[in-house]
Write the structure tokens for this entry.
Amino acid sequence: MDFVRAKAERARESALKLARASDATRAAAVLALAGGLERRRDAILHANAEDVAAAQRDGLAAPLLSRLKLTPEKLSLTLAGVRQVAALPDPVGRTLRATLLDDGLRLSQVTAPLGVVACVFESRPDAAVQIPALTLRSGNAVLLKGGAEAERTNRAIVDAIRAAIEAAGIPKDAVQLLEGRAEANALLAHDDLVDLVIPRGSSAFVKHVKASTRIPVLGHAEGVCHVFLDATADPRQAIAIALDAKVDSPSACNAAECILVHRDAAPALLPALTEALRKAGVEIREGEGAYGREWGDMTVSLAVVGDVEEAIAFVNRHGSKHTDAIVTRDPESARRFVAGVDSAGVFVNASTRFADGYRYGLGAEVGISTSKVHARGPVGLDGLTTTKWVLVGEGHTAAPYQGASPRPFRHEPLPPGDPLETR
Amino acid sequence: MDFVRAKAERARESALKLARASDATRAAAVLALAGGLERRRDAILHANAEDVAAAQRDGLAAPLLSRLKLTPEKLSLTLAGVRQVAALPDPVGRTLRATLLDDGLRLSQVTAPLGVVACVFESRPDAAVQIPALTLRSGNAVLLKGGAEAERTNRAIVDAIRAAIEAAGIPKDAVQLLEGRAEANALLAHDDLVDLVIPRGSSAFVKHVKASTRIPVLGHAEGVCHVFLDATADPRQAIAIALDAKVDSPSACNAAECILVHRDAAPALLPALTEALRKAGVEIREGEGAYGREWGDMTVSLAVVGDVEEAIAFVNRHGSKHTDAIVTRDPESARRFVAGVDSAGVFVNASTRFADGYRYGLGAEVGISTSKVHARGPVGLDGLTTTKWVLVGEGHTAAPYQGASPRPFRHEPLPPGDPLETR
């Protein structure tokens, strides 16, 4: 698979160029991407209709079919999101901190693009639009691999994107499509060229990717989210949040899989809660075997716990560190839950369904991370950056700062600014 | 190796408790650690003397022997560093950003401890002091594995630390020692319990760890640092920086391995540069086979390049993304080099030897990362944290924000503050 390595090498070369493109150039490229897709709208919708027809012949399940299908409205909404990404502040070149190490020796920590990102996703063709928008805006090259069922759609989208960004002065190989699972698997060997892999798909798939590569992997294998109804929960809020978290989109990773009820609230809450869930068509499971399960459908686990500490321990034992919520009127319970639950998102009196890059105001997301290193939770532009330490001196050597009578460092915090500006 | 898993489980339990300890408690624990080591100073130095004697009998090389040897002065210096770590601002619980998603719905991104960190290091016993100081201050539990030659010293140090932190109200299993390579290897299987591995050692060792685990790995396999002497470099500065970067500590990862000279500066610079290097005892190597090599001794590669762009391309091809420096008087060259070189540290008119957590003002470092995800460069307290998204609502459900006429989000930036404070 030498041509997969060649693709990765071209991605790396493009990334090195893109990293030096100005904010205005990268923002313009994202707008050009939106314009290019709009101009080729008919061709893209036509390719999608072919994919949908083939998927129907192959008997693809209805929910997958609905995710695969691109409508003019869906595409317009996605392009509106892309234009929002273009308008977001530049995530690159921000000075996060600056320190005067000694007279004339100034250290700055500055955000920089990651480099080459690989993203393997499922049938949703809008991901093939959103992800390149985010990677271009943040100065990264991307290698995309979509699902086989969306092959024609993804090719039409990526062809349009490549033509549009090339016309905008960005190397077209900053966005490339990998075709077939073999190419994606071959890419995982090139940890010297690819800086991050984002797998989006089933838990088994994400685990497979993690086990197959030395490239850092960002993603979530499971979304086992909890809603804990505390003793002081407002009953109306408690039931509304539990219900929304479960039924709003049961197959989403931020849907609740388990509801915990404080023992003291159980007599008052449980009858109304179980009735509301059953009325909505939710099946309730109880007992040790039901916990820690990602149902992904209209099933929910239910447990009664003694207090907030027991709820925290339960979530940390059975959850997947994605997003967990408490419904309470007690500020101390809220504080304990927020401090004690070891998850990417910890919510108070709000549905777990808000865990989403768009809803968080990140513009869009490349994925949701339950890893604790690098980006955690929904990953937007900031999660696609790293930092660079820029040290500017006046001929400083290190030897005087060590030995028997070392010159002391000043280590004075400076206001962040242009690391190369003469002051 | 069930007892290795048991250690990791105890570390995880301790980490969950430590994550909830206050700033004052964690800072006090770090001071207690320093006090405890001071009180057991004689026992630690005695254990170290036994390690040194055994290593001498085993014929350990002189540089390693000198790193192994702990003197009262070295220990005092290390403890002074520990007290600085205690005094650093709390890295945990800082609100990095806050957004008003809608009326009464406030999102905050707050720093949080990583959890359980494993650190495998070489003979330097001061690492067994510094690393627990950093992990405790940042609310993390640590599993330490030192070199076999420092076994007695490390055990004496870790015993003293455990006693001291337990007396300070921190679970003693927040700091544990793994013994033997088999235990360290067994630990690498427990990616459900360990959040980060930091291997410090040879390039081969770091690569071995990366290949052996699904746990995220932070570290650097190689330090192939470059110094580029630009056409406009001040000759005195150019030679001083090149010399310092090479000879100040040739086996350090931030030592220069290759010096690049701009073609236009070569006639004026090269004779004096090569003379200075040779006088210092440095052997000069040229030619394609010499580039990209981590000499780690008094050898340096030398190449003449046509311009700053060629220098950037050379560094990106042959370097290890650790730290690279330019010596120049041309602001445009500096700007290009800083933007174009894809390394954790990019320095202007300063020696690569400054790439170090203490010198950067981070207090100390757990290691230096050439990975682009998570922390990059010297890793101090901030690199040992992750973030948590805290969403506080008033019973908000997600359903109204989607569908045919969705309620719009406000997405207004808020000043960072206590995520749970009622406003």
Notes: Chain A touches chain B through 79 residues (CB under 8 Å).
